[in-house]
Write a structure and sequence with these properties.
The protein folds into 3 domains: 126 residues, 3-Layer(aba) Sandwich (Rossmann fold); 154 residues, 3-Layer(aba) Sandwich (Rossmann fold), CATH 3.40.50; 134 residues, Orthogonal Bundle (Helicase, Ruva Protein, domain 3). The C terminus is likely disordered. It has 19 helices and 14 strands. The chain is of the alpha/beta class.
């Protein structure tokens, strides 16, 4: 919402403009002359000032200079009579954002105000993103873990980053497909160019082509101005087509042309636009099966799937759970605050839960718990209900007293420890051979043998979970 200063000496026009701007949701402060406007400017900052060139007391150009020196971030629209066009041009040189010649259409003024509002919103979002990155709270394209599958994934990311071929990233929701796409972009020659992500499943069929390829003014109802699509925005860089399986067949046909020829045709345009974009696609669905079913073009499938990168679910890398938990606890701990501890029961619940939402669900669970825990230890009650339920022991009531059954995961740990020790015996104590035979890294084997977890205890391999820095 914009805070607008409206400096206009004509009472009727000032009231009309104020009512219309207020109806659009903007906060408006009126001023009948330049001196009153200057007083308002001494008391507060405005996002936008709409000023007449000719004002009693202090003229509009002087007011503009005051705004530029006092509030340089404030946008200014000057209003001028047709005989004052020369002054309007001077106002633009002095730093005004725009000007309107009286009499003007109210809708035209509203359109220009909306554009300024959109630009300001984007500017604030960018500043917020920069602040988050500076504080370490922004998007964190990091593969956390030391499991063999994650180490192999890191190696593959490094290899494909050196090329410019199309990549298809597959895996269940929450496994980190966008993280991997950003890592590929960051490791390649396009790293200094835009990375643009679009969720194909979040757009309606009627909007997806306009969003991807752009459109000309008047191309369809509501297209009141020309707009570049996501391909043009990503020119020179990388475009991530997330949930690419959701594209309708019509959009698939147009996408194939872009992939083959490197040109896009905006809706309503007669000319093709050349673009240089690396396409990375991502999906949790089986595209090969969709090709057989006729819901996804086979030629597009092979264009997008030059190299496929399947991502493991969290259940395939449970050895990374401790590292992931520590990572998210560090991420959601306020700057300068001590890292909280986590109780044995809370860890039990996390370790026993299958995480159908994978790493994303784990991140949300940690954030949920830390918000509720505040600066205290994370307890079972602080976890989301689905996880808290996973930490409850099963109880059976017979003729005698209640018997508490140990969670299955703890029983599996005991079995795992015995199995690892047996593998070492078979390999004559050679840990490298045992690790290779078991399909895990030597480091993971060493950690599992050195720190076997006790019943109900949180893992001792993670000092961060124990509250140490």
């Amino acid at each position: 919402m914009l805070d607008i200063l409206l400096a206009e000496d004509e009472v009727d026009l000032r009231e009309i403009l104020s009512e219309r701007l207020s109806a659009e949701g903007y906060r408006v402060q009126g001023a009948p002359d330049g001196r009153t406007a200057a007083e308002h400017l001494r008391r507060q900052a405005f996002d936008l000032a709409i000023c007449d060139v000719r004002l009693p007391g202090i003229d509009g150009l002087t007011l503009l200079r005051t705004i530029r020196s006092t509030w340089p971030a404030t946008d200014v629209i000057m209003m001028t009579a047709s005989v004052d066009v020369g002054q309007a041009v001077l106002a633009l040189k002095e730093g005004a954002s725009d000007y309107l010649t009286k009499p003007f259409d109210l809708d035209e003024l509203m359109l220009r105000v909306r554009r300024i509002s959109e630009t300001l919103t984007l500017r604030r979002q960018l500043q917020g993103a920069r602040g988050e990155l500076a504080a370490g709270r922004g998007f964190d394209p990091t593969l956390v873990g030391e499991s063999p599958v994650i180490n192999r994934l890191r190696e593959r990311v490094a290899m494909v980053s050196r090329s410019d071929v199309s990549i298809l990233i597959t895996g269940a929701s929450g496994t980190g497909k966008e993280v991997v796409a950003r890592l590929i972009h960051a490791g390649g020659v396009r790293r200094d160019k835009p990375f643009v992500a679009v969720n194909c499943g979040a757009l309606t069929e009627s909007l997806i082509e306009a969003e991807l390829f752009g459109y000309e003014r008047g191309a369809f109802t509501g297209a009141d101005k020309r707009r570049d699509g996501r391909f043009k925005a990503a020119d020179g860089g990388t475009l991530l087509l997330d949930e690419v399986a959701e594209l309708p067949l019509s959009a698939q046909t147009r996408l194939l042309r872009v992939a083959q020829e490197g040109t896009v045709e905006p809706l309503g345009a007669n000319d093709l636009v050349k673009v240089d974009v690396r396409i990375i696609s991502a999906t949790h669905r089986n595209l090969a099966a969709m090709v057989k079913a006729g819901t996804f073009r086979e030629d597009l499938y092979y264009r997008l799937n030059v190299i496929e990168m399947p991502l493991p679910s969290l259940t395939e890398r449970t050895g990374d759970l401790t590292l992931l938990l520590r990572h998210f606890m560090q991420k959601f701990t306020p700057a300068g605050a001590a890292l909280p501890t986590i109780s044995a029961k809370a860890w039990n619940a996390i370790a026993s839960y299958p995480f159908p939402g994978n790493v994303r669900e784990l991140a949300h669970a940690v954030e949920h718990a830390m918000v509720l825990a505040g600066d205290r230890e994370v307890e079972l009650a602080h976890l989301p209900s689905a996880l808290a339920g996973a930490g409850l022991h099963l109880e059976t009531a017979g003729d005698g007293p209640l018997t508490v059954v140990r969670p299955l995961r703890l029983a599996l740990r005991d079995f795992e420890l015995a199995y690892l020790q047996r593998a070492l015996e078979v390999c004559e104590g050679r840990r490298s051979r045992a690790a290779d035979a078991l399909g895990i890294s030597r480091k993971t084997l060493w950690q599992k043998l050195r720190h076997p977890p006790s019943d109900g205890d949180p893992p001792s391999v993670s000092p961060a979970i124990e509250g140490q820095a």
